[in-house]
Amino acid sequence: MSEFRREAMWRKVLIDRPNLYISLLTFEPGQELKVHNHPDCDIWVYVVVGEAYLHSGDEEKVLRAGQASHIMPGVWHGIVNESDTPTVVMSVQAPKAKYSNWRDMVPGECPECGYGIGFPVKHDRCPMCDLDLGLIRI
pTM for the complete prediction? Predict the structure, then answer.
């Protein structure tokens, strides 16, 4: 069903439409989706397997398999797998986010798909097309 990578969280896109974007996010223990926001869409996260530590606005909580949370447009959010086992999270965006604001990253644009992202200091991947951004410089 899902793939896991040692070096970073992995995203498998299930539906990619302008009004709906659904993906599975896989996290090995210790991996994270860095804190960011999408000013233009609602997000729902649902834990399929394992447990995920969710930071959403002023709220911080652990979601376990079968639990979900809604994130309003513009709310800063991030996910960390603080457990000892792999975690799978389904993310639903409606409509599909046009761009993300990332904390602790310099803003930029993915040269492959044009998605508005931040370029981290360390290796990372585009959250939309999975391009390795590690060697890209602004």
Answer: 0.75
